Amino acid sequence: MHKTLLMAALCAALFAGGAAAQEAEPGDKIKARTAKDVEALMPQLGCGGSDKVQLEAVESIIKEIKIEAEGCEQCKGRVASMIGMDKSRKAALLVIFAWGGLVDAEAMKELAKIAGGSDPLVICTMVYRAEEKVGDNSYRIVTLAEQAQIMAGYTWLLKKMETDFVIDPERRFLMGMGGGDDDALQYASMLWTEDADAFPFRAILLDGLVNSESLDDLPPVPYIVSADKDLIDMNVQFGNKRLTKHFCTDLLNKGLPVQYHEYKAPMMGAPARMYMIHRDAIGIMGGPPAPEYPRERSLPGVVTEVDKVPFKDNEDRYANQVIELARQEEWKKANEYMLRVIANKDISAKDKKAIKAFQKDFDKYVKAEMERCNKSIEISIKAEMWPHWLHHQRLKGMYEAFKDEKWAASKTYGANIEKLKTFGPAQRDQERKVKLLAAMKLELEGKRAEAKKVYLEISKQKDADGGLSDWPYAAEYRLTWWVD
Question: Could you tell me what percentage of the chain is helix, strand and coil, using 3-state DSSP and rounding each to the nearest 5?
Fold first, then answer.
């Protein structure tokens, strides 16, 4: 039943057609929504997020609540909501099974980092296990409720969030991480089996060593799966033959759409890249688009001194924050932050003096730089060659930040950015994408040897059209977690 879901979505992307009409089945609306999400989520270009970009800081209010479900009297809920969130605006909801149910207030602060940007997000979890001292220096983990009661507690928590917040019914997500994946998958299977039409979650997000083999009743929604490479390598050393990539392969074999992200977490501190991966997936499915991260490979065009952002560190903290965002090519965020500071009545005129002075230099540079990048792109369009990657990225970022300004709207910036989507190299790039989608279709049909052959063929085209195309790298990434 599930296998036709992803195949229908792929056929729609390949041939602009839909699945044949058929009698309504339970969960058909969920499957139709998933088919649309597949077109946005797949093919997967590679590991999401970036090690070169800072995770946007989000301050959240952490609250503890009583779980008013039978048998869960000893359990408690934790809720994180963004400070300053517009409570009248619909928010996405993330329900988390984490760390075996052991989630203290500090851990909740970490989980809240998944929220970010302009997308309101409420995060909740339930504490259903505890440490019990059994000796001077020894403890044991005790479960505070029966498994069925834990599941009922999560259903109560879900309803509680929809009472306390304005939750978008189309943007509820379920996550299992750090040992919570089995419970999360069991909960998803239970809800899908009980009432497929009422299944509440848009997608299932998982992080860690996920190796469940129970896939029969999993709902046909997108699965965004991530794993720390060091964790995977450690399990390989210990002889564990079933890894997260095996679970993801099994999902694909069942016709369930899946992304697999294998990242390297830092030795110390939060796994920022993991938070980016799942935050971006939440955004892609009905929220703001994921940011365009710096490529992790060489791209056409040498970066010279003239391409570097010219601002030096500033003694003013507000101006320095704008400069840091500019260095990350986050032009829209940089400008919005600067305007917010200048408009903030709680900041004195004296404290705004430096950033107002910096704004003049910032605007002057942006206008000149957009003109320079635009000329570079016009030369590339005329020559039917991919433009300098940084000139393209920078013009897009700056145009997005200033496109409503009269001085920007009167130029050819937007028109040239659009031309790059349809000129010769872009058309050939689209052909590679179609081939990649065809390979995915073969894989779902069980023709894995044929699919692998196509993946290998596409992966060898890295140098085509100057090497800018993402699809050969997407094919190569798929092969990195291929399981025969």
Answer: 50, 15, 35
Model confidence, pTM? 0.82
Q: What is the dihedral of CA 7, 10, 15, 16, to 10 degrees?
A: 110
DSSP string, 247-267: HHHHHHHTT--EEEEEE---S
Phi-psi region of 27 (alpha: psi -120 to 50; beta: other; left: phi over 0): left
If you search the block for the tokens 């989520």, which residue do you land on? 41
Predicted confidence at residue 463, as pLDDT, reads 87
Q: What per-residue confidence (pLDDT) applies to 18?
A: 42
Whether 476 shows a pLDDT value over 50: the answer reads yes
* 42 closest CA partner among 222, 213, 187: 222
Secondary structure class of 463 (helix, strand, coil): coil
With a cut of 60, say whether residue 17 has pLDDT above it: no
Q: What is the pLDDT of residue 302?
A: 84
- The average pLDDT across 191-195 equals 96
Residues linked to residue 223 through DSSP beta bridges, in sequence order: 204, 258
Report the Cα 24 to chain-centroid distance in Å. Answer: 32
**Residue 27 amino acid letter:** G
A 10 A CB-CB count for 13 gives 20
What whole-number distance in Å separates Cα of residue 363 and Cα of residue 361? 6
Alpha helices in 285-388 (DSSP H): 317-327, 331-343, 349-382
